[in-house]
Amino acid sequence: MEINEIDLFWHNYKFFPYEKKFALREIESLLTPKNIEEKGNSITLKFPQNHTLFNKLVYFSHARIEENLLETIQFQYENTLKLHEKAKSKRQNTRYSVHGLHEYKGKFNPQVVKVLYNIFGIKPGDKILDPFCGSGTSLVEAAHSHIDALGTDINPLAVMIANAKIASLNMPWRRLLDLKKSFFEIFDRLKDDIVLSNDTRTQYLRSWFPEDTLIKMEALRLATSSIEEPANSIFLIIVSNLLREYSLQEPSDLRIRRRNSPFPEKPFIAAIENSIDSFVHQLKRFQSDFGIMSSKNTAYNLDIRIFDEKEIKQKESFDFAITSPPYATALPYIDTQRLSLVWLNLINASQIKELESELIGSREFKMKLEQEKWNTNLHKNKLNLPESIHTFCKKLSNSLISSDGFRKKALPSLLYRYFYDMEVAFQSVYNQLKPEKYFALIVGHNHTMIGGKRTEINTPELLTFVGEKIGFQIEEVTKLEAYHRYGLNSSNAVQSESLIVFKK
User: Fold this and answer.
1) Where a domain ends, among 265, 290, 315?
2) Domain-terminating residue out of 84, 109, 134
3) Which residues pair with 446 in a beta bridge?
4) 118 and 205 within one domain
5) What residues contact 149, with CB distance under 8 A and at least 6 apart?
6) 336/425 same-domain check
């Protein structure tokens, strides 16, 4: 049936200009109208060819079609709890579905992921790759749309969170609630009999937690071993999300700092119970409206730079790649999450610095000899990076002054290493993409103070040179206004980002 006109209504919250631009592109991609007329709070479409796809739109809450006012799926997602409680949200909700399982730092914005899937025509059954998947936002959004997704990340905690989110979509909320009861019953039986060992793991945790808290942590971890998968992983992730708040680490500081702020008033176990109840409540509301979403999307704990060497690789098998990659001198993710990583037995305490240094964009070298090697690589351009990158890194090196500290003096070589690592990562993604397919990246801009002067690091532009070198065509580079970050490290948050789209 042909529809002459559709009115679309924006969500009831403020938008960045780029979000409205994405919205118009999404309309063109999904609905292909003959004309688009903007009218303040709404948009009128004339003769849309695919009007039934209105419900996939990300930035609109409702559509009026032949006097019927119909909700979009995104409106239902973002307002699942609010609708049941008869209240509408006035802020964009980025924690709907299972996105709020863990407050992983540096998360992708789920609305941006979904709108890019729609703009680039990704459909059910297509296969996507996220080479720096973090806590799995792109995998979850793919699951919502019945898209197959594979993610990789070098951080084992990120991978565990991502897989726990996908598992939550597959798990009935009632079963999770039943297992929560069993979990705390087992914990109550174990907590008085826990005797802390004296191994290196426990010694490390003892240095960062009050003794009574650590005993409870160990009883909780032991209790999960009697709980079936995936509930045990979900409970472990929820507990890990609270560890910094109840540790001797200053929660507001990304680096290793002793606590000055007071501990939370709410007891540790009560906070965990509340967190599990809150998540189960959200899952209940989501599944009541949308059912259980069966998905086999998976995150793998591996480095995209060696993806081609792994058995899971399937050359030229992906229809789309999307990611939010690390930027140069990135956040110290491993330091920030070290307590959870050690408590979960994902790494040993002695491996923290090594894993941190292996991250693309790491802020430091493992040893002086490595720094000297990369300094030589930079000055001689031994790795044949694009000349624009080589020139930029050399310019930074030449700007150093005697008062710059050792971290600043290492920065030019760290940047050179970062762009080389990204070249290797891009090559791996290129090898996995089908011809004529796209690779979309949301990349942060950043800056440094070197030689007493502020220098902008235009990471998105420099990465386009890397992409071109290995054979990608540049489809677009679009500046985006970054979301305001609150809480942990908000003062150091990236203030602007760009969308880069490559085409193979």
Assistant:
1) 290
2) 84
3) 457
4) no
5) 127, 128, 129, 130, 138, 139, 142, 143, 297
6) yes
Asked if the structure places residue 92 within a domain, the reply is no
Q: Which of 280, 268, 260 is nearest to 241 (CA)?
A: 268
Q: How many domains does the chain have?
A: 3
Q: Is the full-model pTM beyond 0.85?
A: yes
Indicate whether 444 and 358 sit together in one domain. Answer: yes
Is residue 104 located within the same domain as residue 17?
Answer: no
Does residue 480 belong to any structural domain of this protein? yes
Give the pLDDT of the chain (504 residues) as one tens digit per residue.
Answer: 678 899 999 999 889 899 999 999 999 999 999 999 998 889 999 999 999 999 999 999 999 999 899 999 999 999 876 554 545 557 899 999 999 999 887 778 999 999 999 999 999 999 999 999 999 999 999 999 999 999 999 999 999 999 999 999 999 999 999 999 999 999 999 999 999 999 999 999 999 999 999 999 999 999 999 999 999 999 999 999 999 999 999 998 877 889 999 999 999 999 999 999 999 999 999 999 999 999 999 999 999 999 877 766 667 799 999 999 988 876 677 888 999 999 999 999 999 988 988 899 888 888 889 999 999 999 999 999 999 999 999 999 999 998 888 888 999 999 999 999 999 999 999 999 999 999 999 998 888 888 888 888 999 999 999 999 999 999 999 999 755 534 444 444 456 899 999 999
Longest Cα pair distance anywhere in the chain, in angstroms?
74
Domain enclosing residue 276, as ranges? 172-290
Check whether residue 140 and residue 113 sit in a common domain: yes
> SS3 letters for 437-498?
EEEEEEEECEEEEECCEEEEECHHHHHHHHHHHHCCEEEEEEEEECCCCCCCCHHHCCCEEE
Q: Which residues pair with 10 in a beta bridge?
A: 60
Residue with tokens 């700092």, as numbered in its chain: 257
Bridge partner residues of 149 (DSSP) = 128
Tokens in use for 2? 């042909």
Whether 372 and 493 map to the same domain: the answer is yes
Q: Is the dihedral of CA 463, 466, 470, 475 positive or negative?
A: positive
**306 shares its domain with 256:** no
- CA dist 325 and 424 (Å) reads 13
The pair of three-digit structure tokens given for residue 495, joined into one six-digit string? 């203030």
CA dist., res. 223 & res. 489, Å (int) = 33
* Rounded Cα gap, residues 460 and 491, in angstroms: 21
Cβ neighbors of 27 (< 8 A, separation 6 or more) are 8, 33, 36, 43, 45, 57
Q: Check whether residue 459 and residue 357 sit in a common domain.
A: yes
- The verdict on residue 65 lying in a domain is yes
Rg (CA), the chain: 24
Query: 250: number of CA atoms within 13 Å, CB side?
Result: 13
Any idea which residue has 């914005």 for tokens? 109
The DSSP output letter for 249 is B
Tokens of 113: 């992921």
90 lies in a domain? no
CATH number at residue 126: 3.40.50.150
